[in-house]
């Protein structure tokens, strides 16, 4: 059994990327894993100020919701990030959280496998490339971690428009393979 943390970065109710996150979490849960799904909706996550105090203390000086989420990232064996694609990139709130994950860098973090789930109105295969590249840039800073898989749902825009999309089954199966 693995500890799986799924982080949905969409701030919209009925989010298509969050539906992917829910399916991934359901699959991972059914595979017998300990799964927690967190949404960034309603969270107070401020920008990193670049003070680098966290490199010495492994704690952030900013008092908001990020340190609690980063602590959960530290303890997870598997992390799955779900993001809508905005202007061919990950959502800004996810990038802000990744930046706030700086205390993880000098730590003995547990995570090894990282997944990314994305959705966008554009349906081109290349649509999520920059978002995935952005995440792999973060992953590359953690030598024990790797990008283990991605799922992209293209052609979805309105809330809950993803219903019946084949990417939901892909996200579920990807989660189900964790074990």
By CATH, the superfamily comes out as: Flavodoxin domain
What is the CA-CA span between the terminal residues? 6 Å
- Which second-level CATH architecture applies? 3-Layer(aba) Sandwich
Query: What is the name of the CATH class?
Result: Alpha Beta
How would you sum up the global shape? globular
Within the CATH hierarchy, at the fold level, what is the topology?
A: Rossmann fold
- The topology string of helices and strands comes to EHEHHEEHEHEH
User: How many strands in all?
Assistant: 6
Beta-strand level of the residues, as a percent range? 15-25%
Poorly predicted runs? none
Overall average pLDDT: 97
């Amino acid at each position: 059994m693995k500890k799986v943390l799924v982080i949905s970065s969409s701030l919209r109710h009925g989010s298509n990327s969050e539906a992917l996150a829910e399916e991934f979490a359901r699959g991972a849960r059914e595979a017998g894993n300990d799964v927690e799904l967190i949404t960034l909706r309603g969270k107070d996550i401020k920008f990193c100020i670049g003070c680098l105090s966290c490199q010495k203390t492994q704690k952030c000086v900013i008092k908001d919701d990020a340190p609690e989420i980063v602590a959960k990232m530290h303890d997870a064996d598997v992390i799955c990030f779900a993001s809508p694609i905005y202007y061919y990139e990950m959502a800004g709130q996810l990038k802000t959280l990744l930046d706030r994950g700086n205390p993880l860098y000098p730590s003995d973090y547990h995570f090894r496998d990282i997944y990314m789930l994305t959705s966008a109105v554009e349906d081109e295969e290349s649509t999520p490339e920059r978002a995935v590249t952005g995440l792999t840039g973060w992953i590359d800073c953690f030598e024990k971690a790797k990008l283990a898989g991605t799922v992209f749902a293209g052609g979805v825009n309105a809330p809950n428009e993803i219903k019946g999309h084949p990417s939901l089954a892909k996200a579920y199966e990807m989660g189900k393979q964790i074990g």
